[in-house]
Predict the structure.
Amino acid sequence: MFVKRREHDEGDLDITPFMNLMIVLVPVLLMSMVFSQITILRLNLPDLTGSVTQSAEKNRQLEVVLRKESLEVYFPSGVLLKTIEPKDTEDGKKMDYETLSLVLREIKKQYKDKSDVLLLSEADVSYQSLVSTMDTVRGFRTVVATSAVEVELFPEISLGDAPPRRGDS
């Protein structure tokens, strides 16, 4: 007894519709993809012990005090240089970062070797204001020989809490 085997015809696999789908789908997904850039900022955070050494008092830093209603710039000697009030714009009052940049440029001319700054902020200051102030303190853009260049001001930023205003208790 012999058993007959049936011969099966193997069908051809048509992948043309799948390839057409991929040709359309891949560019659409790539165009809708969000490319994000992660930037790491190196900051010096305050000491948790709260101790102030004599060397820290001798080696005072340039201080920028960020308050909700103003910016204050102190010389490394501790003397108030300038209080920068917000400017009026169509959207309301905005911090005047251009004036802050100009003041810091003048200080950089006097203290060329100085690269550190102490940024002190009040508790009710918005995150965006803090980041914008850090960007302004770090450097500025200028045009040199028809190309935009980032000029470094004070890239070593230390953070801290702002002291209360004079006259406030």
Observations:
- The first helix runs from residue 16 to 32.
- The chain is about 30% helix and 25% strand.
- Strands lie at 43-44, 62-66, 71-74, 80-84, 87-89, 92-94, 116-121, 139-144, 147-152, 156-161.
